[in-house]
């Protein structure tokens, strides 16, 4: 409120936030659904804040149990829908399958000992394992194996999630979240520390309309997350569309956006562990990207060749010239402007591996600091 001749009352906490905001390096996490964006946010909390307290870990237990139910329900529910279908190896487990399917896709009201015994019987069935190996043919969260392997621990009354459990825990992002943290600056760049603000927004199609809300926050760099292992999977929200092809299309759109031309573009080609496993199992990248058949590379392994192919593809997409149309406010005449190709920095990541993320983010941090020092020196 203002009185005659009085000075405006400024909330100190709001003032401090505005000061930090103006000085912070702002990072925007973008990418399609289930690419690993939220896991990167969790890693920043582990690496640069104080990690997760026991109380925070306990708060994730309902979500972890929900992940277990979603996983076993989706595997068993898709066995007869596969082509060719898969049957239970042990007919005695049919009662357990019916128990889980009768509960429906929503989690049960209570996770009883009986419930977990049915889950364990099904997960140990060879037929269920065969259906799990074909999970690219239906929708299944990546954390399924991690949590189904840990049912005995998770069902205990005194269970407290491990840090790895927290990283694997899947909760769909439906809002814009932010995390603030500081990172020391190497002495060769002047020492001190850099304050970061990192934003995470939902990546599924219905959530992308919210992206524009953070474009006007003065974003310094975009961390675009692409799940390399998605090459043989379809979108959860549109099963006629390939996940990796969709991610590359969205990346091309963001890379060419006039609203983000001043932001650095960094790509995390994520889920390299799952990508490697699929390639080494004989999954064919060329089935989904025919041009891979003619891709020439000196890599010693098929996995390294596949990595090189995707790296090249991302680089080529970032180098495509973009033409935008502006309008003269007086004459309303259209004026076309060609935007130059932009640089992109590509890193290969495993978002659930803290040491891998630390190494990659240290490199990203140094690059950002180096650019800031260079910009200051140019004034």
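Sequence proposed for the structure above (379 residues):
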């Amino acid at each position: 409120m203002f009185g005659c001749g009085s000075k405006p009352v400024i909330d100190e906490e709001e003032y401090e936030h505005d000061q930090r905001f103006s000085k912070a390096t702002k990072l925007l996490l973008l990418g399609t659904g289930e690419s690993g964006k939220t896991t990167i946010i969790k890693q920043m909390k582990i690496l640069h804040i104080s990690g997760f307290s026991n109380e925070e870990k306990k708060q994730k237990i309902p979500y972890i149990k929900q992940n277990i139910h979603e996983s076993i329900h989706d595997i068993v529910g898709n066995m007869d829908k596969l082509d060719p279908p898969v049957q239970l190896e042990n007919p005695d487990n049919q009662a357990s399958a019916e128990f889980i399917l009768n509960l429906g896709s929503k989690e049960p009201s209570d996770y009883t000992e009986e419930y977990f015994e049915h889950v364990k019987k099904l997960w140990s069935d060879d037929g269920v394992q065969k259906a799990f190996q074909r999970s690219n043919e239906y929708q299944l969260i990546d954390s399924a194996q991690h949590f189904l392997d840990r049912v005995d621990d998770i069902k205990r009354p005194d269970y407290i999630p491990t840090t790895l459990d927290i990283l694997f825990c899947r909760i769909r992002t439906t809002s814009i979240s932010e995390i603030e943290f500081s990172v020391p600056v190497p002495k060769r760049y002047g020492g001190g520390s850099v304050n970061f603000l990192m934003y995470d927004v939902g990546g599924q199609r219905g959530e992308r309309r919210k992206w524009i809300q953070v474009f006007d926050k003065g974003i310094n760099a975009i961390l675009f997350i692409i799940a390399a292992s998605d090459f043989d999977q379809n979108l959860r929200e549109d099963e006629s569309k390939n996940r990796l092809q969709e991610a590359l299309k969205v990346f091309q759109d963001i890379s060419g956006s006039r609203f983000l031309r001043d932001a650095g573009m960094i790509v995390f080609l994520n889920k390299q562990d799952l990508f490697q496993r699929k390639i080494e199992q004989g999954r064919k990248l060329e089935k989904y990207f025919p041009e891979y058949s003619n891709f020439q590379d000196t890599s010693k392994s098929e996995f390294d060749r596949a990595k090189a192919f995707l790296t090249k593809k991302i680089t080529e997409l970032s180098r495509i010239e973009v033409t935008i149309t502006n309008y003269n406010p007086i004459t309303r005449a259209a004026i076309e402007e060609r935007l130059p190709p932009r640089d992109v920095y590509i890193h290969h990541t495993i978002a659930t591996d803290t040491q891998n993320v630390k190494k990659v983010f240290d490199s990203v941090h140094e690059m950002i600091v180096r650019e800031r020092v260079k910009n200051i020196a140019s004034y």
